[in-house]
Inverse folding.
């Protein structure tokens, strides 16, 4: 066809005409021009292609063999709005024989001619995803337009990777066997230009890459009667089914046409892990302890709705997500509370099921708003024997321990407690005591509980069960002491 016969200068002139990038090797320019013909198929574009084609060969001398003239047709007659054979790739309204535009390799993905390039038109934008870093936009969001009145529609797209993109994929590390970190992904959203859109699948979605269907995330089961199960809408990885070469790839999206409009885009991305996001947060997201202290003072002094502003505010050192002691205390800067959750588990949970909702206040806590509380990080290292602290109005803090906990603490006068008439109800330990067996019972039980605390907490970090924090284990001994008395 005419585009394939263009030289570099012709391709650059065509791409410059529509405001596209003119840089790159010839095969990159050809691919860009083919996509232009496929998706921006306005009469002005085809008029420009014909003009460049005729200008090139009109400059040839009469002694040079002339190529056959392009078939006579009207660009406006291309089947931009025509109906297509259901499930086939040939239009009912065919152009004259000899036309082999890449746009006719299959049905148009967008199905509509776009406005002239000089007219500004709002474009669909997709939200940025923390676990995906965009390297290249292979196809900007393009509307899925039904070609007939059938409920099930098919929309194909063709494109080729550049050698640089192929090398990026091949040289990337594997996240798991067969899954590269650099991927070509398909993203689908509502056709809405008012704000960046979240991923949203149309009904009856199926994605075919070349000759194979690609797996699409299934549904989350619903336990409530009458409530439809939800599907996690996330980027669909196409890489393992693509030709990692200069060959053309064909993507076909099957979708249900039930009135809502959807747009699809193709991107070259690098998928990140929760460990990588945690490391990045530790590098750029730590809030200095002094800034956190100033925030505490300001909240206690200026919060008119707080009933405890004159005394202080309590903050738990236990993560609300997993009921274990915090290791990397974090919260969103948009949150109004001082309570933190553990960044490690928060990122792991959003890696599996991205919701990005604060577990404390149930408000959005996106990754780019997360901070690590430097003050609470410092408190965690200094306060190992309490699971709750209280911030005071001057920005200082003190550990909070229950009354029974204090009685069991080695620093407290436990001999007074042991002088009660226990009458041998507690088990006899191996240790000795000057003041009798009952006292030894209390002392040894306390020491046993304290000495094993750190080991049990380390075990809890590996187990994802519902066992409560360490204070609950101490509580069983305390109840025994009270009943014995």
């Amino acid at each position: 066809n005419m585009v394939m016969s263009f030289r570099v200068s012709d391709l650059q002139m065509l791409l410059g005409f529509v405001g596209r990038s003119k840089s790159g090797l010839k095969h990159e320019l050809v691919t860009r021009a083919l996509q232009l013909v496929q998706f921006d198929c306005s009469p002005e574009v085809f008029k420009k292609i014909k003009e460049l084609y005729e200008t090139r060969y009109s400059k040839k001398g009469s002694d040079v063999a002339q190529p056959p003239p392009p078939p006579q047709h009207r660009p406006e007659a291309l089947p931009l709005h025509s109906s297509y054979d259901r499930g086939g790739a040939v239009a009912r309204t065919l152009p004259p024989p000899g036309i082999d535009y890449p746009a006719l390799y299959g049905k148009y993905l967008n199905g509509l001619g776009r406005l002239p390039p000089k007219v500004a038109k709002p474009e669909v934008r997709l939200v940025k995803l923390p676990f995906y870093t965009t390297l290249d936009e292979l196809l900007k969001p393009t509307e899925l337009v039904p070609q007939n009145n059938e409920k099930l529609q098919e929309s194909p797209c063709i494109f080729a990777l550049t050698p640089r993109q192929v090398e990026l994929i091949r040289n990337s590390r594997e996240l798991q066997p067969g899954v590269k970190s650099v991927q070509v992904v398909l993203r689908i959203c509502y056709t809405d230009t008012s704000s960046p859109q979240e991923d949203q699948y149309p009904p009856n979605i199926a994605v075919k890459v070349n000759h194979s269907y690609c797996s699409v995330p299934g549904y989350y089961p619903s336990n409530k009667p009458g409530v439809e199960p939800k599907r996690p809408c996330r980027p669909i990885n196409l890489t393992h089914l693509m030709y990692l070469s200069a060959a053309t790839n064909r993507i076909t999206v099957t979708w249900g046409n039930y009135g809502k409009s959807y747009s699809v885009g193709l991107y070259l991305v690098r998928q990140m892990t929760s460990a990588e996001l945690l490391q990045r947060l530790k590098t750029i997201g730590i809030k200095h302890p002094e800034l956190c202290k100033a925030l505490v003072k300001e909240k206690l002094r200026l919060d008119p709705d707080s009933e405890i502003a004159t005394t202080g505010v309590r903050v738990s050192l236990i993560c609300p997500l997993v009921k274990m002691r915090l290791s990397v205390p974090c919260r969103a800067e948009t949150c109004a509370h001082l309570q933190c959750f553990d960044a490690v588990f928060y990122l792991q949970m959003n890696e599996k099921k991205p919701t990005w909702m604060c577990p404390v206040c149930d408000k959005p806590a996106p990754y780019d708003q997360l901070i690590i509380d430097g003050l609470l990080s410092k408190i965690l290292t200094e306060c190992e024997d309490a699971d709750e602290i209280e911030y005071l109005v001057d920005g200082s803090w003190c550990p909070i321990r229950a009354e029974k906990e204090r009685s069991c603490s080695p620093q407290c006068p436990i001999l007074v407690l042991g002088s009660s008439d226990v009458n041998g109800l507690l088990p006899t330990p191996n240790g000795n005591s000057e003041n009798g067996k009952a006292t030894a019972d209390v002392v040894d039980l306390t020491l046993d509980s304290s000495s094993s605390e750190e080991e049990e907490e380390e075990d809890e970090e590996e187990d994802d069960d519902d066992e409560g924090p360490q204070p609950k284990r101490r509580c069983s001994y305390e109840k025994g002491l009270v009943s014995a008395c």
Notes: The CA atoms of residues 186 and 236 lie 5 Å apart. The domain at 132-220+230-272 is CATH 2.60.120.780 (Jelly Rolls). Confidence is low (pLDDT under 50) at residues 61-65, 69-116, 404-485.
